[in-house]
Amino acid sequence: MDTLNELLNGFAAAMTWQNLLFAFLGCLLGTIIGVLPGIGPVAGVALLIPLTLNMDATGAIIMLCAIFYGTAYGGTITSVLLNTPGEAASAITTIDGYAMTKIGKAGAALTIAAVGSFVGGTIATLGLVAAAKPLGELGLLVGPPEFFALMVVGISLLVALAGKSMVKAVISGALGLLISMVGIDPVAGAPRFTFGMDRLLDGVSFVAVIVGVFGLSELLSYRKGDQPAAVHAPNLRSLLPTGKEWLRSAPAMARGTGIGFGLGLIPGMTGSVSSLLSYGAEKKFSRNRHQLGKGAIEGVAGPETANNAHANAALIPLFTLGIPASPTIAVLMGAFLQQGLTPGPTLFTENSEIAWAIIASLFIGNLILLLLNVPLVGLWTSILRVPSSILTALILLFMVIGAYTINFSVFDVFVMIGFGLLGLALRHLDIPLAPMVLTLVLGPLMERSLRESLEISQGDFSIFTSRPISAVLIGLGLLIVFSPLLKLRKPKALNEDPET
Amino acid sequence: MKTRLRLAAALAAASLIGLTGCGANPGATGAAGAASDFPKKGKSIDLIVAFGSGGAVDTAARLIQPVLEKELGTNVEVINKPGAGGQIGYTQLTSAKPDGYTIGATGSPSVVVSPLDPSRGAKYTRESFQPLGRQVIDPTVIAVQPDSPYKTIKDLLDAAKANPKSMTASTTGLQTGEHFALAQLQENTGAEFAPVHFSEGASQATTAFLGRHVDVLVANVSDVNDLSKQGKARVLGVMSAERAPSLPDIPTFKESGYDLTAGTARGYSAPAGLPEDVAKKLEAAIEKAIEDPAVVQKMKDLGLQTSYLNGADYKTFWAGQEEDFKEVLPLVQKKD
């Protein structure tokens, strides 16, 4: 009952016209990012953080969350119409989505994808509502040692699951920690790694680093050949699927929701694993499995539901435990921190009004996404007709403006460019970028909780193993890191996913 | 087809550029034209709070914010920059342009002491701030868990004397008011606690206390007001000359036989070097906001006694505090 009350209060807060506008703009911008092939969700969200820096915390987070799950839908459009996925999680949709386009059923495919995204996203958000209260109440049990142990688990998962080589993932993670150390020591106040430059006292700007490492480096490694094929005018005559198509989609959506929700809860899993698995499930269990690959609606409904359920479910560990499940969520977490909110168990004790308003807005946003996307499909595809030379130049312009507006300083623009070059180098060396973003966000929190823990124990490290919750968590972290030795395999799809 | 293409591109560009424009931060657009037309319409003023949201500094700043907006006729945005016991926010405040568009909440002793200790490498001194007005003095209190065996401050201090460092006690950061209070206790009574520095502020320290991760909560009256009423903390003593009006049943330290006072004084300041008329305008608006009857009442509800001082008097008070804290600073400096 209490939860319902707080959720309703959250709805009241989320329904102000400003917050509705932010949710709408977020969905719109998120869809654009999803549609644009040159820019992924991580860089997209990072790029738009500067826009929100001067908003109030609730509005800013509502908008960034909307951008985040908007990207999960935007990628579908290009998958279905152009056979080019806008982002990795929609790659599998190309098979049946594009096949449907070829037989003149693009409208039905996109509508089903939008409805599936709505269903998956909404059910996953209900999961967040159910989990928030009980996990939020555990918040007080989580003291500094437990908090530190949670961070260790989060980092272990992402390091273990990222890229092909764990050594390279560790290098990337260590780099992120190093960068997070720049600035005033958060406890004792002494400047660190500032090389006497006053500009570095406040640390390296997180937004500039992310935009550089993910956005600029992606743009720099974007080759001419990557330009998508010419757009065929989509046949949108019938947007509405037939009754039979609805009936066929329902079980696929149900399976997709289950898969996306389950995998979304596991940090380190990306949306593409969910959509791949969901496609696999359709191949095994669907009544029309023999039609898959030839334009079966299940091949769109399942994966598209799964990747949105995944995106929304991935917010659960962020809100309740403070663990970002993917690089995009790590960037989102960075935005929370910039707004003075610490995601995690204490969020519901210290900022419960804002937390519930954001959760309510997730429901609203999923609805907006549904209403926004079906009628505007024509508009999205026309963005793709802009030649990539113009598009990339525009995106580059936004990156420079974005970096500049963080503090209105040219210094941040150079930081962005410098980290763009670093990102390019890391890409060439095949070093995954995800662990670096994660440790960059978690570094200061880890340092703080580590030092507080050691003050509580007066310097005794056994505090991490003598308290049951942190002991279990630390053990879990070690197990994850050493899992390759135990021959536990990770899903193949993660090796290929550019987001990791 | 062509028009649609252009439309789409224009829409995408316009929505982004439009938003960037809205988000424009006036803080850095130069001190030009700062004089008589201050504050320019539509140009917002940043109020930097050097502690996390939910603490007393933050709450007070958010209370005066609407009145300030009304007085100045422009947006005032509260920005939390927690860390290093206030030093991160103070650094940002003092490195902003003195054009009136950046002001900040300043609390002593943190703001007074951080530049005195060379090991902190603070980039500011007392002269880097232009005090605009003092709002409150918030006395320090000592509280324990509600089921703690210690019923009086004497019980607690005797136990901490018998077994030094057997109990942990929270502070809001190294060399903040709470840290000084602990050091003074140790110096005067021999009772020794193990300090745990929650360098982002009181809300973080209180959460840790409620989760029983620290034994003793050292905080201000306003932090424990609600906790005490809800029975979540047993307040043992107030370190002020007289009992706090919001906690009438709690004895002062003096009543318990320890002649010690400690507290946090909070006000608002700008980076030094404001044009005179800008300073005047800000000072007047801040006075109005602090003395606003509704604000005073809300502060009272939180257990905070408004005690306004104007800019000049706040400056004198600040200088006096600097002298006082210089003497006790060695108590809280790292000995290694």
Automatic annotation (TrEMBL), chain A:
Pfam families linked to this entry: TctA
Protein keywords: Membrane, Transmembrane, Transmembrane helix
Recorded coiled-coil stretches: none
Record bears the keyword NADP: no
Transmembrane segments: 20-49, 61-82, 108-131, 138-163, 169-188, 200-217, 314-336, 356-381, 393-426, 469-486
Boundaries of every DUF112 domain copy: 20-438
Domain of life: Bacteria
Name assigned to this protein: Transporter
TrEMBL record, chain B:
Record organism: Pseudarthrobacter enclensis
Name of the protein described by the UniProt record: Bug family protein
Keywords of this entry: Signal
Keyword Signal recorded: yes
PANTHER family: BLR1237 PROTEIN (PTHR42928:SF5), TRICARBOXYLATE-BINDING PROTEIN (PTHR42928)
Signal peptide interval: 1-24
Pfam families on file: TctC
PROSITE patterns: PROKAR_LIPOPROTEIN (PS51257)
Annotated coiled-coil segments of the chain: none
InterPro entries: BUG, Bug_dom1
Lineage: Bacteria, Bacillati, Actinomycetota, Actinomycetes, Micrococcales
Family according to the record: Belongs to the UPF0065 (bug) family.
Highest rank taxon of the organism: Bacteria
